[in-house]
Structure prediction request, 664 residues.
Amino acid sequence: MSSTLRQLIWPLAALALLLGFNAAFHPSFFHFQIHDGRLSGSIIDVLNQGAPVLLLALGMTLVIGTGGIDLSVGAIMAVAGAVAAAALREHAPVALAIAAALGAGAAAGVWNGSLVTLAGIPPIIATLILMVAGRGVAQLITHGETLLIKSDSAFNVIGRGVILGVPVPILIFLAAALGLSILVRLTALGLFIEAIGGNEQASRYAGVRVGPIRLAVYLLMGVLAAAAGLIDAADIAAADANNSGLYLELDAILAVVIGGTALTGGRFTLLGSIIGAIIIQTLSTTILSFGRNMPVELNLVIKAAVVLVVCLLQSSELRRLLTRTWRRSQ
Amino acid sequence: MMRSFRQSRARSFVLGVTFAVCAIALPACKKSTQSAADQNGPGKSRLVVGFSQIGAESSWRTAETNSIRSEADSRGIELKFSDAQGKQENQVKAITAFIAQKVDAIILAPKVETGWEPSLKAARAAGIPVILVDRGVQVADDTLYATLIASDFVAEGRMAAEWLAKKLEGKGNIVELQGTPGSAPAIDRKKGFEQGIAAYEGLKITRSQTGEFARQTGKEVMEAFLKSAPGEIDAVYAHNDDMALGAIQAIEEAGLRPGTDIIVVSIDGVRDAFDAMVAGKLNCTVECNPLLGPLAFDAVEKAVAGETLPKWTVVEDRVYDQSVAAEVIDSRKY
Prediction:
């Protein structure tokens, strides 16, 4: 437990710094209000808008835990949104549209997993294929247009609904996080994932069924990405195949890395990735809240600078170097 | 890395790769161009025009393609259509193919501004006039193309500003949702709007951020604006309809009435925007007309006849507000 805590201390410090900055310069960041039974405020916005990346980060943590990576999650989001919107356009019941989208995500995950496990293609290449082709598939489904979903459709609850004042995307994320935590920590799945990421050969000799577990992890990722795509589409009541999930795979990977999971696999922390994703979204919302007279071209530079600082904070080499220099100067 | 990486060059790369894969997956598209070439025998009597389109990345562009296609049909012109799947090199290849097929004229919607000189020179050497649509090119010698048919983005911004100034009676705080940083419509629509409100001391842009021309990002930015300046926003100016539609949702979720509590003005004039105006949520949209077919073929016919055309044929855009939205919505083609 203490090692987990030590792992999380730097991401937590970065988040605290970011929130502290807001507290000092922008106190309304912490205001909460209730509009029409809906909890509202910047913090809620962070979680609500961050829900897709949070979901992606959860799945990505497991994928990276096995030593893999999934670049196709943004494209899967676009496909899921497109499938749901197309199904709704054909007057399919909402439940069926959701099932079809999640099924498409699962199929995409199986595709990725099969390329990795059966064909032995390195994950970065295997998932690159779907990253590139998936958005094309989504554009084919929508015929290159933004497919609108009726604004009064029950489907939109996924993105805009509120239960007991809490936006539904946040609840979906919480449910997924809880479910996954139980799955990986109360069953042996987490152990197997870390074993595969640590040493695939050794775990195979130890009797771990590497192929099926890998496949399951990519499948889970596909379903989570589809859920993120559903939230995205329901939020704006439209499937935007060109923009939905665009570059979010990079946000998700960054969240995992900021959270302290090594890209080499073998050890992962879901909580860390959650904190990482919250850091990224807090940063976006902070920049938007401040954007008074700041040229928009600076957005990316500021983000890059903050991410650099967070990564440097986490670098044990750098910390050792700094302590050594400091001691020598004493 | 971050969501807003989409602003970077990586975007065009990724889109390019995406379309390239689509091109592989859809050999039918390529084949149709080639088989059309084979049929292009001697003794052609009707006008043959090649049209190199960028792709189908937005409903605006799809509307533009349909307009050019149907106008060619109705004028009895044979149109050789080539979809570049978002890649300039495919457009260069298409122009080479059009020249080899000895078309009478080429219509080009250039993906980027630069790198067209060799293609345009080859077309001129073959005596084929090139008509540019919706975007310009940077060439040292502007006689390389016959004319550019495009909207004036600066004027669009100015028209939006003038409408808004009248609506707000020259006083109020405006937040701006910019397009993708560095893109011509974002730069020009910002410039035009600033020119337009310069005459009114009471009008101020209090916040300005990029919504990247996307609905989702427009909504996210507007949510942040509403939180950081509660009760201080009188109007939203969005560089396109999609961002305005996202902003409208953000306004509604904050418990305010878009179109009443906060005035919403945008540019493009897509169908959804008209729906929003009829519903009273969007106040005004400045049309950016994609129906360039008639103008393009007027230019083609004049250029083939040897007439000199103005270098820029400005597409007339007009302002639509709620007062006319219900009347015209059924006649909208895109």
User: Anything to note?
Assistant: The longest helix of chain B spans residues 10-25. The radius of gyration of chain B is 21 Å. Chain B has two domains: 46-150+290-314, 153-288. Chain B touches chain A through 55 residues (CB under 8 Å).
